[in-house]
Amino acid sequence: MAAYTAIVTVRLKRGVLDPEAETTKRALERLEFDLEDLRSADRFEIDLDADSETAAERRADEMAQRLLANPTIHDYEVEVVRR
Amino acid sequence: MAAYTAIVTVRLKRGVLDPEAETTKRALERLEFDLEDLRSADRFEIDLDADSETAAERRADEMAQRLLANPTIHDYEVEVVRR
């Protein structure tokens, strides 16, 4: 067993409205910042023990599918690093 | 001018309670996942045009300080990539 951190990034799929990101973008523009676009995402950093990096990645992927992401509106990606 | 994406990751400072992360951790445990810890963070992906990578990073850093992060409770980091 080794110690890993799985980073799961959950984003809205392209085409799904993101009013929070739109509000943040407008607030930055009101502060006179120049920007082309702003997207927001949720990032989960999950510490877990697993037999291998592959096993850690598989478990984090299952966590994303079962709880962290909603497949109707979200895409997600998983990255695993040693801790 | 070149096109960059600045990725701003905003985390709660160590010691600041994160009830949402705690709830997510417990929900995963109820689904019988094994995990040691879970932290959540907000990730902003900001497309902007700037004269250099340094200028893009400086602007994103200012956005974090003025709006995206609350210095009392948050740490943040900025990463800039060409788009």
UniProtKB/TrEMBL annotation, chains A, B:
Alphabetized Gene3D superfamilies for the sequence: Phosphoribosylformylglycinamidine synthase subunit PurS
UniProt entry keywords in alphabetical sequence: ATP-binding, Cytoplasm, Ligase, Nucleotide-binding, Purine biosynthesis
Entry keyword ATP-binding: yes
GO biological process: 'de novo' IMP biosynthetic process
Subcellular location: Cytoplasm
Pfam families, A to Z: PurS (PF02700)
GO cellular component: cytoplasm
Pathway(s) it belongs to: Purine metabolism; IMP biosynthesis via de novo pathway; 5-amino-1-(5-phospho-D-ribosyl)imidazole from N(2)-formyl-N(1)-(5-phospho-D-ribosyl)glycinamide: step 1/2
Catalyzed reactions: N(2)-formyl-N(1)-(5-phospho-beta-D-ribosyl)glycinamide + L-glutamine + ATP + H2O = 2-formamido-N(1)-(5-O-phospho-beta-D-ribosyl)acetamidine + L-glutamate + ADP + phosphate + H(+)
Enzyme Commission number, as recorded: 6.3.5.3
Main location: cytoplasm
GO terms for MF: ATP binding; phosphoribosylformylglycinamidine synthase activity
Primary role: Part of the phosphoribosylformylglycinamidine synthase complex involved in the purines biosynthetic pathway. Catalyzes the ATP-dependent conversion of formylglycinamide ribonucleotide (FGAR) and glutamine to yield formylglycinamidine ribonucleotide (FGAM) and glutamate. The FGAM synthase complex is composed of three subunits. PurQ produces an ammonia molecule by converting glutamine to glutamate. PurL transfers the ammonia molecule to FGAR to form FGAM in an ATP-dependent manner.
Family per similarity comment: Belongs to the PurS family.
Subunit structure: Part of the FGAM synthase complex composed of 1 PurL, 1 PurQ and 2 PurS subunits.
Protein name: Phosphoribosylformylglycinamidine synthase subunit PurS
